[in-house]
Target: Two component transcriptional regulator, LuxR family
Amino acid sequence: MADPGEPLRVVVADDHPVYRDGLAMLLGSVPGLAVVGTAADGEAAVAVALEEQPDVVVMDVQMPGIDGIEATRRVTSASPSVGVVVLTMSEDDGTVFAAIRAGARGYLLKGADQEEVVRAITTVAAGGAVFGAALARRITEFFAAAPTGPETAFPQLTAREREVLDLVAAGRSNAQIAAALYLSPKTVRNNVSNVLTKLQVTDRAQAIIRAREAGLGR
Model:
């Protein structure tokens, strides 16, 4: 948390130079904020955040190399005092929950106006959380309906990825999954790869164990 009277130190991570530089310039012009670094990809975001120890990192989700979700996880694990506000074009639940699980305390859509971005940064720097009214309602609904079975397991997965995981857990091969879901083998491979990444497991066997524990694959 920043000292009173000291400007809040902010890092901006986004792979689009025009957006990144524009946001950095905008935030730098706000009294009480100081942009202490920028990054164009996830690896750089982690490096700058750990070196500068800012109050808040404004982190784009879609970045080359490691994405903003994984970068957030690495930053918050290594430096829990650094608040992360993720910035994304997407409002899907999978992204929201993946960001929260990774340790983000704020979530903004890229269309957010300056006032909203500044409010999110100051709130997160003060230890609060910002997820926007619509997202806050969905998060509340999600936690109110506590996970009780396969339908609510792995909220970070898309519906398609959950279908694929269910079939993986049932012992099906990629070719069988492709036939069952009318998908190309390449699409199935991509989905399986995404599932392993999101579940933070190294291979199919571990994914099957996690999925079966949650009631999938039966």
Observations:
- Residues 150-213 form a domain with the Arc Repressor Mutant, subunit A fold (CATH 1.10.10.10).
- The mean pLDDT is 86.
- The chain has two domains: 8-141, 150-213.
